[in-house]
Amino acid sequence: MSSTGMNNMGRIIFYEDRNFQGRSYECMSDCPDMSSYLSRCHSCRVENGCFIVYDRSNYNGNQHFLRRGEYSDYMNMMGMNDCIRSCRMIPMHRGPFRMRIYERENFNGQMHEVMDDCDNVMDRYRMSQCMSCNVMDGHWLMYEQPHFRGRMMYMRPGEYRNFMYNGNNGNHGNHGNHGNNGNGMRFMSIRRITDSCH
After folding, report:
1. Is 148 helix (H, G, I), strand (E, B) or coil?
2. How big, in percent rounded to 5, are the helix, strand and coil portions of the chain?
3. Which stretches within 5-159 are classed as H helix?
4. Is 65 exposed, middle or buried (0-12, 13-18, 19+ CB in 10 A)?
């Protein structure tokens, strides 16, 4: 992984109530547990950068990608069932994007190297599923349905040995099972998080 061009300037403000009301908490880095700062969170404003927000603490649960903008009632806007409980800032990456995707767990089965967005893994690579990957360069979003739809998972550089056991937390699969929520995923489309997202 190249650290060249990584920029850690991100800023998000969380509010307890909808429409940016109530107590607020400003965050410029990863936050594993929002309850330390706010009893609830129903709206947010991304001033700079990109973030992944989670509906459980410690980067677990369903994930949503937020870029610069205002989210006055994100639960309705994004179909979230619960408040934001944790967030992870996505570093800006300037340079090549590269990952290897595998048809089966533990880097088995067909392997393809991906360097750009793929809106349908099955059509492009003739793979019926993608069950593990190795992210070498860049930060990515992987979606359970073609055309970047359905639940998603944030992938940063590292090895992800088994999506069915990694849950939705975006932690490195080579470090064991981190907070599996019992909802393993198979991915059918892949998108890079590029400069234009920031």
Report:
1. coil
2. 15, 45, 40
3. 74-78, 121-125
4. middle
Last residue of one domain, picked from the residues 68, 90, 112: 90
> In this predicted model, what pLDDT tens digit does every residue of 23-78 receive, in sequence order?
999 999 999 999 989 988 889 999 999 999 998 999 998 899 999 999 998 777 77
Decide if 75 contacts 62 (C-beta within 8 A): no
- The whole model's pTM is what? 0.82
Do 117 and 85 lie in a common domain? Answer: no
What are the helix (H) ranges across the chain? 74-78, 121-125, 163-166
Domain boundary among 90, 125, 143: 90
Cα separation of 106 and 57, whole Å? 27
Amino acid letter, residue 91: P
What is the distance between the alpha carbons of residues 27 and 167, in angstroms, rounded to a whole number?
A: 25
